[in-house]
Amino acid sequence: MSRFTTIKDIAKKLNLSVSTVSRALRNTYDVNRETREKVLAVANELHYRPALPATGLVSRSSHNLAVILPFVGGHYFSTVISGIQEVAYQHDYNVILHITNDSPKRELSLIRNLAVPNLDGLLIAVSSGSEATAHFQKIMNTGTPVVFFDRVPDTIKASRVVQDDYLGAFEAVAHLAGRGYRHIGHIAGPEGSDLAQKRKMGFLDALKKHGLPVKKRWIMHSGFSQENGLADTAALLKQKERPDAIFAVNDQKAIGTMIALKNAGITIGREIGLIGFANDPAAAVVSPTLSTIAEPAFEIGKRSCELLLKHIGRRSFIPEDVLLPGTLIARESTLREPPLPQ
Amino acid sequence: MSRFTTIKDIAKKLNLSVSTVSRALRNTYDVNRETREKVLAVANELHYRPALPATGLVSRSSHNLAVILPFVGGHYFSTVISGIQEVAYQHDYNVILHITNDSPKRELSLIRNLAVPNLDGLLIAVSSGSEATAHFQKIMNTGTPVVFFDRVPDTIKASRVVQDDYLGAFEAVAHLAGRGYRHIGHIAGPEGSDLAQKRKMGFLDALKKHGLPVKKRWIMHSGFSQENGLADTAALLKQKERPDAIFAVNDQKAIGTMIALKNAGITIGREIGLIGFANDPAAAVVSPTLSTIAEPAFEIGKRSCELLLKHIGRRSFIPEDVLLPGTLIARESTLREPPLPQ
DNA sequence: GTGAAAGCGCTAACAC
DNA sequence: GTGTTAGCGCTTTCAC
């Protein structure tokens, strides 16, 4: 069983002490140029790789970051990971991935069993209904920096990186207004949801700002799924007064809305404008293509990781709050005039 | 700066030796029941977490697996990760994620700098045009097990886990035949692509098996993108003879095909049947919904990781090849009769 | 059943 | 400039 090359092997081969080899490898202190070159040559020849656990033992740093999040299958979180990964790679940190499946139970067991001494920092998106807040606090008390992203607990004093749901919703509605729609309804999320609440506020404030009427009956609350969107919209269309545009809390519900509108024989865009939120890949593929607010997923990952590394760098750190704007993506569903045939 | 609790702290507090504490913690050898319980109690009280790098130093095992893949943003690879993660979690292994961005250069630098001594095993999907084969071999020579998945180098003797592209294509075409389509074309991938080649073979063999005509001119080769699919299909439709069904090499091209068919005023399903490959989330959302072969992404991750752990368990191991079938998902695009209105 | 001591691979005083 | 020594946190002989 071939062991790995260690500095000891190099030392023996060169009749040097391990410390000299260690110094030469890291190019620190004063090492004779020749010695250093010889060491480097042998290291290369023997395919030497430093044993990080050992260096970590001494330096009390593992260059490991843990990322804890609910899912990885979807578009959003996997893009966030890309952003994290990008920064971690540049700074030579490892990303250790943990998935909770959005289960508070699994999250809790995961956190409790987490090998914190093995970690330089944590990046966490909490699962819905998380019960691990006390444990997050404990980890932070050990001096290990933590940055929360996307889904953040509000009872904890720590850095957070989130997107600006309020502003995104505001801009979605402003876009509708700019395209000439005047009677705007909202297919909202559950009343209890923080995210849904913020988007609704953005919706309402945008209406006010643009002097448009607010019709309570045009705001439909339910879950986040496509089916919910379909049902909400079907109910909305039964009212005697109809909106001429709809802002949906996310793209899934917006797509449900599209189906309901099609079922009712309504031309999307011309008769009723529609905008979603997320920029799900599906939005570019449905027909007509769906206008939406693109979430800054990659950016969230990037900034979270940068912030964490900053905390790791200084031993003491003050929490920061980062609010990232989304980007309006105008597509066919908010086009009042059909595009010219090509 | 609060340090982490170590076995030394526990030992001191209990007036025991570190070795006894170590033994008690791992419940090994004969430790007095009372002693053990006291140790466990104090460990709990002090929030003791073992320092994995230290245990790893001694046991020569880190419980770390590296996963190296081209992307993480898309649906496919992120689902694979879920599968890996699931198994790793159950067996108490960490997953360290590395992304190559499908760049051979970055893959190479990543592999070269990989802290292999810190790893118990590797899971790799190589990037296109990979130049790292020699390095993979080197890693395997150190005795570190490697399992390749999805994208596998054919010049290396190692375990691989891949989906059955041939069979998937075969079944897609068999499905078309079963629905009564007789004149089937193929929107294929690039001629050089291994994956595209296998799917084409499956297509051809299925035609033969069902006694259907093979028309060379109905096989269009180009890239994998939606735009390619649109262009291919537009060209196909210009021919004087038209197929009554199309098998596309992937869902993206199939969606391009859908657009081309719609542009030509053709009713998808009734006039021309269409089936893709991948079960991209978009396939369930386009209109009509797209029949497809679902890739066993989660399963690939799961099996790869299981296989790797098996290799890690036994110190010597023989390569295995795992071929995973996809699943037919029949949707509206292969429906010859429109569904009854609800 | 428990303790003392050595050692995993590496770094950092401290000598010389 | 280089070697010696101690020690990071843990496990594992080997004593007793």
Structure description:
2 copies of one chain form a homodimer. By secondary structure, chain A is an alpha/beta fold. Chain A folds into 3 domains: 7-45, no CATH class; 64-163 and 297-324, Response regulator (Rossmann fold, 3-Layer(aba) Sandwich); 165-295 and 328-334, 3-Layer(aba) Sandwich (Rossmann fold), CATH 3.40.50. Chain A is built from 12 helices and 12 strands. The first copy, chain A, has helices spanning 7-14, 18-26, 33-45, 52-59, 75-90, 104-113, 133-141, 165-178, 194-209, 226-238, 251-263, 297-313; strands at 64-69, 94-99, 121-124, 146-149, 159-163, 184-188, 219-221, 245-248, 273-275, 292-294, 321-324, 327-329. In chain A, the strands form 3 sheets. Chain A has a 6-stranded parallel β-sheet, with helices on both faces. In chain A, helix 5 (75-90) links the parallel strand 1 (64-69) and strand 2 (94-99). In chain A, helix 1 packs across helix 2 (18-26), helix 2 (18-26) packs across helix 3 (33-45) and helix 8 packs parallel to helix 9. Chain A is elongated. The N and C termini of chain A lie far apart (67 Å). The mean pLDDT of chain A is 93. Strand 2 of chain A pairs antiparallel with strand 2 of chain B. The structure holds a DNA duplex (16 and 16 nucleotides).
